[in-house]
Specification:
The chain has 381 residues and is of the alpha/beta class. 44% of the residues lie in helices and 14% in strands. The radius of gyration is 22 Å and the shape is globular. 41% of the residues are buried. Bound molecules: (3S,4R)-3-hydroxy-2-oxopiperidin-4-yl beta-D-xylopyranoside.
């Protein structure tokens, strides 16, 4: 016969088991998801590869609509792909992405109009300032107007700053001068009146670079041109997430009357090559050696846990500032797809996202969900 005590024990064991099962089952049958969990707080996005946009990747085809309500094309709207020669545009995949997003009620961030990397070959060798100007006007006007009303936001200018807050010496700065950023936003505003306009960069949570970003934003505003938000890319290292700088940045950017988005979030778990500072500049690469590729088979539990804790810390901060944050986008759906397997060193095995190579949720996924469920449980009691 069961006495009261053993009955209580049995019941709590049953509840515990069914709770952890629910956690697993919930994500499998679509009941619980990132987008649902944070729907009152901010959009939850992912970067999509060409394959994923074409729904050739069955894991992503199933998971993306279930988990995400925002998406950014990882590459296919960059100038080298969408504008391959002077008078030729290649809109195929971007149009497919718009249709895909519409079917699944996903808000698109188009990425990106003006950036020094992944530019078309014909622009790279251009000497004459008038031709660069013509390219600049045609590119922004043609691409931004085609997708106005179809995409939610544009990264109008990407990575215009050096680490010390000065302007990067790109072809646009050289040929068009200091005002090119304001002009890019002016053209985008005209071509895309229904689309949010963002400035996007990495490391702009760092004080000097942040000051440079604030100067850019103020200059755009002073010219009477619209800027709706600033994107902090969020390519960080699991051991070194700059929480205080991120918090200070959310406050300072919000004080300018614009929204903040975390646009390319991923946390590398691999050792940095010797002497390398944290940079997402895609031209700044390092050479391979085995010591900096320690987890070729699997990620040890201790590092899984560290990743979960770092992501939970970030989402707690995001929730604190949810009124200022428009969107949090991960740079990829699963670890296998992440650019961090090939950057800054080729051929490594990295684990920076919430889903593993088989699209299974990692401990970091549950830790992120719990920042919300625990928070609301606290409020409810
Ligand atoms: C990366 C893509 O993920 C890679 O597939 C590509 O080879 C290089 O670019 N900052 C940005 C993104 O704004 O567009 C970059 O994406 C990562 C750094």
């Amino acid at each position: 016969m069961l006495n009261k005590f053993s009955f209580a024990l049995l019941l709590s064991g049953f509840l515990f088991a069914s709770c952890s099962n629910t956690k697993q089952a919930a994500t499998q049958n679509g009941m619980s998801s990132l987008k649902e969990t944070f729907k009152k707080d901010f959009l939850i996005g992912t970067a999509l590869s060409g394959q994923q946009i074409e729904e050739k990747d069955s894991g992503a085809a199933r998971l993306v609509p279930q988990q995400f309500n925002a998406a950014t094309p990882e590459n296919i709207m960059k100038a080298e792909i969408i504008h391959p020669s002077w008078d030729r545009y290649n809109f195929d995949l971007a149009d497919k992405m718009v249709a895909y997003a519409k079917r699944h009620d996903i808000k698109l961030t188009a990425h990106t109009l003006i950036w020094h990397s992944q530019t078309p070959a014909f622009l790279r060798g251009m000497k004459d300032a008038d031709s660069v100007k013509q390219y600049f006007v045609n590119h922004i006007t043609t691409v931004a107007s085609r997708y106005d009303g179809k995409v939610y936001s544009w990264d109008v200018v990407n990575e215009a700053l050096n680490e010390d807050g000065t302007l990067r010496n790109s072809i646009f700065l050289q040929k068009l001068g200091d005002d090119y950023i304001v002009e890019a936003f002016r053209l985008a505003q005209k071509a895309a009146p229904h689309t949010k306009l963002y400035y996007n960069d990495y490391n702009i949570e760092q004080p000097k670079k942040r000051a440079g970003a604030i100067a850019i934003i103020k200059k755009i505003q002073a010219a009477g041109v619209r800027i709706d938000g600033v994107g902090i890319q969020g390519h960080w290292h699991v051991d070194n997430v700059p929480m205080n700088d991120i918090e200070e940045s959310i406050r300072e950017f919000s004080a300018l009357g614009i929204q903040v988005a975390f646009t390319e979030l991923d946390l590398s778990v691999l050792p940095n090559p010797r002497g390398r500072t944290n940079s997402a500049d895609i031209s700044n690469t390092s050479t391979y050696n085995e010591q900096i590729n320690p987890y070729t088979k699997e990620l040890p539990d201790s590092v899984q846990q560290k990743l979960a804790t770092a992501y939970a810390g970030l989402f707690n901060l995001f929730l604190k500032y949810k009124d200022n944050i428009d969107r949090v986008t991960f740079w990829g759906v699963n670890d296998g797809q992440s650019w961090l397997n090939g950057f800054p060193v080729r051929g490594r095995t990295n684990y920076p996202l919430l889903f593993d190579r088989q699209y299974r949720p990692k401990p970091a996924y549950y830790a992120v969900l719990e920042t919300k469920t625990r928070g609301s449980a606290k409020k409810a009691f």
